[in-house]
What does this fold into?
Amino acid sequence: MPPFVFFLIQLSIIAYALVAGVFLAFSDFIMRSLATTSSQGGVEAMQVINREVFRWVFMTLFIGMAPMSLIIGGYAWTNLSGPPALLIMAAAAVYLVGCFGVTVVFNVPMNEALARMELTSDATRAYWLQTYVPRWTFWNTVRTIASTTSAALLLFGLLWLTQSQVQQA
It folds into this structure.
């Protein structure tokens, strides 16, 4: 494996894990905390969070890992074989579907709906407590599991690959 690809895979493991950590914080305690505030306070805080998430650090990791997943998955498909290739391709696919895809299909539309709502309306309160918090948290937990699984699969694939190469040497 070329050193540059080895380095990209190592960075991808870290990035997958960092993305998972952000999602874990939301599923574990942030959403629960926001749900226990007044509905207006929780909605307002989440609206602000959804605007601020577009800062460069998280979005660079989150969005950047979609093409990076295609690159490392494509590399494994064309240049590797056996269990390491399958693990690396699985890591890429799990991230693309379970993290990036879930975000686009489920979390973003809920965020956009919440952004258009008036803070003080009864409809907003009902949506927040009955729909947004439970569904958004469920899909966020899926993203947490997917990102964590991607990091683990990629780590195991890289370890297996390097161990195989050492044994062949």
In short: The radius of gyration is 19 Å. The first helix runs from residue 3 to 36. The chain is about 90% helix and 0% strand. The chain has a mean pLDDT of 95.
